[in-house]
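Let us work through a complete example step by step.
Step 1: write down the sequence.
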Amino acid sequence: MSATGDAFCAGDGQGDCTPSHRQTADSSNGGQSEQDAIVHFDWEPGQVLNRRYRLDSLAGEGTFGRVCLATDTTKKRQVAIKIIRDVKQFREAAQEEAEVLATICAADPWGQFRCCWMHTSFLHDSRFFCMVLEPLGSSLYEFIKKNDYRGFWLQDIQIIAKQLLYALNFLHTKMRYTHTDLKPENVMLTSMEPARPEWFPREDFCEGDEVRRKKKRSRPQYVRPRGAGIKIIDFGNTVREHDRRDKTINTRQYRGPEVILELGWDEKSDIWSAGCILMELYTGEMLFGTHESMEHLALVERILAPLPSTMIRRSPHRDHVNNSPMFKKLRTSKEESRWVLNWPAGASSDASIQKTTFTSAEKDKRADGTKTIHGFFITTTVLGQGSFAKVKLCMEQLTGTEFAIKVFRKLPLRRKREFTRSDDGEGMKVRTVLDKVYDEIALMKTVSHPRCVQLHAILDESASNGKLYVVLEYMRGGPSMEWDESECCFQARAGQITEQVAQRFMRNTLEALDYLHQQLIAHRDVKPQNLLLDGLGGLKLGDFGVATRMPDDYVVQGTEGTYHFFSPEMCASGYKGLWDLVVWGEFACSCSCWQKRQDLPALLDTIAMGTYELPPCD
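Step 2: predict the structure and record it as tokens.
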């Protein structure tokens, strides 16, 4: 963006040059450049690139190049190859994007954080830089356009919003990246299946009967995607944390006010863009449909709130805001001036504004006696009580999905200290229980497997005496077995488990442990209370409170876990990972415990010496 007032008012910013359906003459360069004269890569079906990728069809093309669907003849899979035009600056930008994608893929090897996956990159014919990517479906914009600018179903928007914020949290907190160019064109649906015909629930929204009848005759059949899974693409403008934060970013209609006013920006600019995208998914049109900076700021004030006077005072364009006919300056005192909107008639996003409603935050206590947690979750019944946390059933307000939420009071956890082995294996160190809880959360963030209980969200109150909320997947069946205090043993919740069911449970647990061990994670507390029934006939492994990363020798030192499930090597050299599963399998088949009614020293001697007999399983 130019620093001159004319450029500020005309909107000739850098982001306006991004090819998009949103651009008009104010963002064109008035003629064809030398770069535009360079044609795209001339492809043909059956052509093989890099002696491996056979081109099948053209998926799309843009300013930087074209994307072809291809077959990986080595791994027998379909891929998408982004072939960059033979322009030096495009090639260099693509190489930077490939570096960013390679870093993201290394940090997210399972592809769970909703960023486009790149398999590899190569240079074809010493001229065309190519990136081999996963194939994806339509962009969100293409889908809206296909539906004649009617939005998505609200249920699909909720799913998309969750994934989008999940991806941004990963980029911002773990990768320290800011995408800087989020828009519907750069968010792709993962499903490549044909969309299914569906009725549109907001067909008559803000339209009269006559208008609706005319549109119904001319509009195409509304379709709904087969799935609402998404991936973020186009990391060519991604900015690292230490890079400049004063240049103009984003396509105009998705810029935050701090970018427009040239106040500097950070990763929160992506959050603003995400909010604009979500509103567009609902209404079918841009929230800020403008090509001029002053009108853009006026629209922001009309929809949200007056811009803080401190923001405008810090802007190098203060005089233009002050003198603009779209704003009136009110002087409330000699020290302070305030700008308020003088709403322009016929603003281009007036229809969007009419469709936008806002509700006040809900109170913590609801009329039915349930409690809301920071406006996100509604808690209901108590599922259990542990030494340090209470577990409650909760419902996510946005989606209506049920979760289990562990509620920790941080102050008692911070006061309780424990001695643990130091990282180098020599000596001891003091750590609080709260430190261990944070370690468990950090480890669970890396776990993504259908046989492991999934972490959904974390709500951490900043106050030292506040609460920590850990939101987990809700397991409707509860633990596979329960402790019988009178018999000092575990009992199956529905009587003795059949051998067939026990085999299925063992297989589920082995799948979870195999995944964890591949990730070099030792669970260290496999027992009936932590093997939870999913309500669909299977098990999932939960409670990673004593789980840890395995060292290079794959032997974990220390004696964390439950004594009844200690293995012989734990009494001597360390934990290796499967003994506790064998003991649980014996429980599952016999519903009895060969170690019951033993005191701790006798129990450990029995395990170490192997002086026990397994009861019959029939």
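Step 3: interpret the result. The mean pLDDT is 76.
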